[in-house]
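Troubleshooting: if your tokenizer reports a length mismatch, compare your output against this known-good record of 260 residues.
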Amino acid sequence: MENISIILTDLDGTLFRDDKTISDYTIEVIKKAQAKGVLVGISTARAIESAKEFLGEFKPDFYIANGGALVTANNREVYSCQFSVEETRKMLAKVYEVCGENIEMTLDNVSTLYWNRPENERGDEFTRPKAEFSDFKDFKLPAMKICVAITDENIANQIAASIGVQNVDIKPFSDIPWYKFSKANATKEKAVLALSEYLNVPVSNMAAFGDDFTDIGMLKLCGRGVAMQNAIPQVKEAADEITLCNMEDGVARWIEKNIL
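Known-good structure output:
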């Protein structure tokens, strides 16, 4: 596909194998694509520092992070969208109000991941790298993303309603029983449009890979949307094609066949 000059890939369930590693084969294929002049970047719900923890020798040309709330390229911020301090405080208070004092949640901004689970009870790879503890009772920083350990859509909508449902992007995770909350414009598709404008490359020249709810808009927007074989049905329906699963180097196999 000669017109594809940018590749965007999700991490968990997509580029990552189930143990959060990237195979040597995949890294080698990505390096060959980059040497050919193709830009390869990540588009993930993780914060940048959390993503870097697992990337090994893969050096992305750009980052779409925090579910689309932050875009960086050439070591500069291209796009940023976050809850204000007031909005953040209202949502955190609502979480405790509707979910109870024992509810588990995380919050991230540009530099830090916060978690209200005590450090000695941690260990889930989903939360690496090390998070700072906060009980979120007197939190005074803006948030790019808040994740709450709930599965009930009605409860999720109640939380969002604290600042207006129309102002919040609400998505469940398919692999863990949590919901993600970010600003309405903090989506992967909005981030892709910002990156397109910054790099002066049309979205039709981009190929995107994903497996979960937050990837659907991105796959529909880009010139080639590719779902993993292990993707949820909704992602497969939105994609132009399906590649092998994350355990079979599906991203790299597609790049090797279509780009190299």
